[in-house]
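Here's my example:
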Amino acid sequence: MANYKPDLSCQNKFIPINFAEQILPGTFEYALCYIVENKLDLSGFDAWYHNDKTGAAAYSPAVMLKIILLGYAHGFISSRRMKTIFCS
């Protein structure tokens, strides 16, 4: 079983914004989250992670896919550019 970091997009401890409450139904971001979480089978990624007993936890493939697809939708094809936009 793969060891993933917890998805904290619904947390409200360190930031005053709950991401799940910020995206509005009918928007691209809402559709993207819905499709990645409910329609795509991402279980194939689990075979690549052999960190269940040793190693650090990895980011969830669902979270990474959402970031990459959102970046591509906004015209960012460089992961460094995505980092500066989404992580600042």
